[in-house]
Amino acid sequence: MLISWAVDAIWPVLERGEELVLATIIAKSGSAPCLAGSKMIVHGDETSVGTIGGGVLEAEGQRRAGEVFRTGVSQIFTFDLSGRDAASMSMICGGRVEVFLELIDPDPVNLEVFRSLREALRSGEKCFVVSDLGEYDGDIRRISRCIVRGDGSVTGEFHHPAEWLATLAEQAHRSTYPVLATLGARRFLVERCYTPSTVYILGAGHVSQHVAELAGKVSFHTVVMDDREEFANRERFPTAGDVIVLDSFTGCFAGMEVGGDSYVVIVTRGHTHDRVVLEQALRTKAGYIGMLGSRKKSVEIRKALLAEGFGETDVNRFNCPIGLKIGAETTAEIAVSIVAELIQARANQGE
What residues are paired with 159 via a beta bridge? Predict the structure, then answer.
């Protein structure tokens, strides 16, 4: 997946007239220390941004990126995370990964494609990128690419039959991860692009700490909010996207764009605060609203909301108790169940 951080890091390099190498995990099997779609950007001065798994895998990726800069030929290599490789990483993975090292030049087409891509991501528009890698088994010397937007419009280069693009579009929509496809005698890399969904976590207690960490690891942007600075701070939430100290929970969503790709998790320190947040959340267009609590609490709040004038459709929008039924007991286990439900809700939205 090409996500906003990668595009935001690529664009200024191209705008300065510099080339870069983009390393992408395009396939994995076994217990590899990375996800398909993981990315690392390597600059000409050998500095890098992002990660494809660390250890000798990443070191090999950086070494080969130097070869790509020198030769001008992009490459796909397979790395075996077993035996000697695994031992040098002080771990036993036993998996294999395929890494695509793509040289991206600051030519006019690439500038146009990545400019359009950045605009699409910032507006939340769904799109995908098709990179033409050339003849199968041939050197990857020149990569032409295009961005295909939700309305079917194309920016960039695609000099092949329209039915090929339709086939690649279908593959892009079916997979969250990059797809290496062969049509005719040519190879194409297809990647969906998106801006991470936002999880608004109301309350900054122990469960929230685990939820923020886990949600971030599965590509949610996390926003933690609480009215206590001693709880809502970077020391407690080092990996959260944003940590906000509220004056009070009243008006907690003021000035925020809480839309269909937003997820609200209500885990405040008390019933009163939960009610205040829930009533405001139901007035937004959030795609998912969940609240920590018992079934009894859920029934009582639903009755109270109906009495206050909320409709049946409104009260049916929130989930309480929050989280999938996995027998969770500890705060960490409860957080796992909550994030699992967020993943499920996100997957259902994409159907």
Answer: none
